[in-house]
Amino acid sequence: CFLLTNTKLSWEQSKDLCLSKQGYLAIANHDQVQNFLFEQAKEMAYWIGMTDSLTEGNWIWMDGSKVKDGIT
Predict the structure, then answer these.
(1) Long-range interactions of 45-48: CB distance < 8 A, separation 24+
(2) 29: which residues sit within 8 A by CB, 6+ positions away?
(3) Which string of DSSP letters, residue by residue, matches 2-41?
């Protein structure tokens, strides 16, 4: 399930909104999901569940899995 909104939120606010709806920011660890997100939000800014909050420049998905090369 994906939620698109016109409300401008920070990454943290977006994460909290998803959690309040028993969801998570999208994890685009498959090409099909990544392509879907890019297609749906061509002209919009959006947040996904990728973060480097633990180590600057070391990107991981919120579920702890590594981000595959070429996605940043």
Answers:
(1) 45/8, 46/4, 47/9, 47/11, 47/14, 47/15
(2) 61, 65, 67, 68
(3) ----SS---HHHHHHHHHHTT-------SHHHHHHHHHHT
Q: What pLDDT is attached to residue 65?
A: 85
pLDDT tens for 45-69 read: 788 888 888 889 888 888 888 887 6
d(CA 33, CA 39): 10
Q: How far apart are CA 18 and CA 2, in angstroms?
A: 10
Taking phi over 0 as left and psi of -120 to 50 as alpha, with beta for the rest, 70 belongs to left
Please state the pTM of the whole predicted model: 0.70
